[in-house]
Write a structure and sequence with these properties.
six-stranded parallel β-sheet; 8 helices; globular
Length: about 220
């Protein structure tokens, strides 16, 4: 199991996020699992992690799930299921919160809808998630993950039905300037609180202040 711990002090100082943390409040937050996208890894969420720590989250309860982005999203979702179970066992938490980005949206959706994950999750935040696929994936179909990420693929078709299963609260953040998730509206989920940002590109959304504050608010709702 890998945690996103990193050099938080330097990041916090650089970003000006220092704020007095309230230990009692931090103890009430669910563990947070970060699910990266195509060619990514857990370090993609460093800025968001620093932001959450500055707002009272414990760095020790932030977990990055790293997976083989070239492989099937089904296998990646199965790995996510095992990862969440490990976190619950080690922390004693009954549920976790999930943040996903890009192809991580598809990994998360399969876990929630097909593997019983909805019972283990309180909040889901999707940042430019490829939740209904992206035509951009046609450029990388040498990988099965990209074949599955194409709109209308068998993988995405298998996820028809309730897009926000369980009692969790869902939020999505999209931008018309994304450039990778095409159409950008693919991120939106029926039943979620869907937010449209101004002109933010696919990677910059990970450190967008409006999106980060929205995730903070979602996770404390």
């Amino acid at each position: 199991m890998r945690r996103i711990v990193g050099p938080l002090i330097g990041i916090l100082a650089l970003l000006g996020f220092f704020a007095p943390a309230a230990p009692a409040q931090a103890a009430t937050h669910n563990p947070v699992v970060f699910v990266h996208g195509y060619t990514g890894n857990s370090t993609n969420f460093a800025t968001l992690q620093a932001y959450l720590v500055a707002n009272g989250w414990s760095a020790g309860r932030l977990y990055g799930y790293n997976y083989n982005w070239a492989g099937s999203n089904i296998i990646s979702a199965q790995g996510l299921a095992a990862f969440v179970n490990q976190i619950k066992a080690s922390t004693g938490a009954s549920k976790v919160d999930i943040v996903n980005h890009s192809m991580g949206g598809l990994v998360t959706r399969y876990y929630l809808q097909k593997l019983g994950g909805a019972a283990n999750v309180d909040h889901v935040a999707s940042l430019a998630g490829a939740n209904h696929g992206t035509t951009y994936a046609s450029a990388c179909t040498i990988y099965v993950s990209c074949i599955e990420m194409l709109p209308g693929s068998a993988y995405i078709t298998s996820l028809s039905g309730d897009e926000t299963p369980g009692s969790a609260k869902y939020g999505t953040w999209v931008s018309p300037c994304d450039g990778i998730i095409i159409p950008y509206t693919s991120t939106r989920l029926s039943g979620a609180d869907n937010h449209t940002l101004a002109c933010v590109d696919h990677l910059s959304i990970l450190s967008n202040v409006q999106a980060m504050s929205g995730i903070r608010d979602l996770f404390t709702s």
